Amino acid sequence: MRIFLTGATGFIGTAVVSQLLAAGHQVLGLTRSEQGAEALTAAGAVAHFGDIEELDSLRRGASQSDGVIHTAFDHDFSNFLANCEKDRLAIEAMGDVLAGTQKPLIITSGVGMGSTGNNALATEDYFNPEHPNPRRASELAGRALSARGVNVSVVRLSQVHNPLKQGLITPLIELARQKGVSAYVGDGENRWSAVPLDDAARLYLLALEKNVAGSRYHAVAEEGVSMRTLAETLGRVLKLPVVRLEAEQAAEHFGWMGAFVNHDMSASSALTRARLNWQPLGPALVTDLEQLAG
């Protein structure tokens, strides 16, 4: 299959390119730059110039392919609401092209969308359309397309990690270095789920090849690592003191990260493993964090 891949030169997309090519698929990768095009060509993919805000470029890419995997997302959290809306428009644009074809469109969301609250594990078969996280816009767009007969499935990501990047933990590391302390909130028992990068990329491939419309999959290797464990690990690795903050101190200390650090983002991948025969193989999150340079 020839797959149009957005985010093809990004952290996750680069790994997805490798998985797709190794499995014998062709990749048409979205890029904004000549440097990105060179990287895609070197990897064995074909570059498609455009941007997630250039909806015509997305429509052209989708129309030239046998399916679409959408991993691109603007991670500037100072404009999170606007970026979620941008993602909705991108999904709708590609879905419009695929309508009536049964070509797969795999979109990306977060495991938090499967949470029922009360620190219960998020699950694949649950989605709250009223979820307070604006990232719900991505899944709402996908659900609207599914109602029109578009072949949409969702990969929900946890904290995707390797020794170089670790999802939302990466800005926590930079914050700890800036503040000179590694902090957690309250008892620190709220948990974040996690998955190694290569395992997450392989999940996109399996979802594509399984090709079950309306499916949701959780890229989760560890159901939850406590925020206290993360803070203590960062303190040890970065050689910084570890401090407990009360909830009312979180916003001042963490800034925009304050909206995440005292929330539970634990999640199950039991249904994903059963449905795709997916078994994570990579290292634990703490193992990758221990590779950081202090």
Q: List low-confidence stretches.
A: none
What amount of the residues lies in strands?
15-25%
Over the alpha carbons, how many angstroms does the gyration radius reach?
19 Å
- The level of helicity is 40-55%
Structural class: alpha/beta
**Biggest sheet architecture:** 7 strands, parallel
Q: How many strands?
A: 12
Strand order of the largest sheet: 3-2-1-4-5-6-10
H/E series, N to C? Answer: EHEHEHEHEHEEHEEHEEHEHHHH
Which assembly state applies to the chains in this document?
single chain
Mean pLDDT comes to 95
What's the tally of helices? Answer: 12
What does the overall shape look like? globular
Distance between the termini: 44 Å
Sequence-ordered SSE layout with sheet pairings:
Blueprint (H helix, E strand, L loop, with lengths): L1 E5 L4 H12 L3 E6 L2 H10 L2 E4 L5 H9 L3 E4 L9 H19 L5 E7 L25 H12 L3 E7 L1 E3 L7 H11 L2 E4 L5 E6 H14 L5 E4 L2 E5 H12 L3 E4 L1 H8 L3 H4 L8 H7 L8 H5 L5
Parallel strand pairs: 1-2, 1-4, 2-3, 4-5, 5-6, 6-10, 7-9, 8-12
Antiparallel strand pairs: 9-11
Question: TL;DR?
Answer:
With 294 residues, the chain is of the alpha/beta class. The protein has twelve helices and twelve strands. Helix 5 links the parallel strand 5 and strand 6.
Walk me through the structure:
By secondary structure, the chain is of the alpha/beta class. It has helices spanning 11-22, 34-43, 55-63, 80-98, 136-147, 169-179, 197-210, 227-238, 247-254, 258-261, 270-276, 285-289; strands at residues 2-6, 26-31, 46-49, 67-70, 104-110, 151-157, 159-161, 182-185, 191-196, 216-219, 222-226, 242-245. The protein has a 7-stranded parallel sheet, sandwiched between helices. A 3-stranded mixed sheet has the order 7-9-11. A two-stranded parallel ribbon has the order 8-12. The chain is globular.
